[in-house]
Amino acid sequence: MDLVLLPQSGGSDLKDIYHRAFRQAEELYILSAYLTEWDVDVELGRHCKSFAFIVGKDFGITRKAACQKVIQWLPRYRHTQFLVAELIDGFHPKAIFWRESDGRCYALVGSSNLSKAAFATNREANGYSKIPKKTYDAAKQWILRLKDSCVILNQSWLNGYREAKQSSKPASAKEDPDMSSRVFNLQLPSSKAVAQLGSALDFRRSQMLTFEYHQAELVHLLKSAARARIWSDSKNETFYQEFRQLWDFGDGSRFQANGWERRGKQSDFREFARSLVRVLEATSQDRDKVVVIEINRLTEEKVETRRSVFTEMLCQFFPDRYHVANDPVSKWLRSTGSSSPWGASAGYKYLEEALLLRAALENAKRKKGGYPVENLAVLDVVIVLKMQRRGQSEENPYEG
After folding, report:
1. CA–CA separation, 241 vs 261, rounded Å?
2. The pTM is what?
């Protein structure tokens, strides 16, 4: 391990390491307890296949201006990978982990936050080293778990974030306890209220079990369509009929009501299948990125089933990670104070919702006594019924 001691080295060594990671990494993960400065002029290499940048917000030390510079620095398609530890009070890592094209893995871990002082005047100690793949993979899994407590750091989050007043030392929880408050209102219905929905939640769980029973056949059908070299209207019709028989014809696995059949029958089901198979075959750390790419692709291709059917398939296959895109869920999320940036793509909006829902459920589970909902598929029922009772949704996706 090499030591990077500051300011003896003048900060140049530390910057050189960051620049190497930005230029050469195929996978790159940055974690910083506070983000107060960002003046990087090195572009992130387009060959970087997997990326996440997570910053903390404790005590309001992170600066909005620095975050906005990162948003401007990142390519638009990476904006969903800039995250804030919304649910973590005590997020304190200062580290980067990356893997280069030759398979070698590296880590830089130490006391330096991403701040101007860390590169110039502070007394800092950092360790920099090549690390074994096993160690690197453990770091990736740890980061993946951290992401369940994160949301996208965008202008919507910044609008609600409260900066601490600049001072010569960080604020403490005693000096300003409100500085650690969360930006979004992610409160779900109480456990008592959810308990009253018992039969509806049990029915959803039974639907999921039925889906699991047909899952292997469904995956085979999807892969056959995705890999077909020749596609025709007759093959499209055959897929449509076989897909419906496995998913929704009398077997009780389908969440949503009738309706997509009229609009979606003429969809290009080979493109639908290709997108879904790519998501199924993605690694766990890259799946969110692939979901965004494929929803955007289906939107550009004008595939009719891209919202109702595709997102339900995501929810059915990955109930802990993804939700059904429907009107009640979108309205509940807007009630939390979140809003997508102007011009955001369909894929961005969907992942933004998924991260907020994951955080809301994680927040509820941490409370004393836990929470009687185990995943986003079951949470979907809670939110739909909640919004109906509040009179905020004219749509009931589960009647028809």
Report:
1. 10
2. 0.86
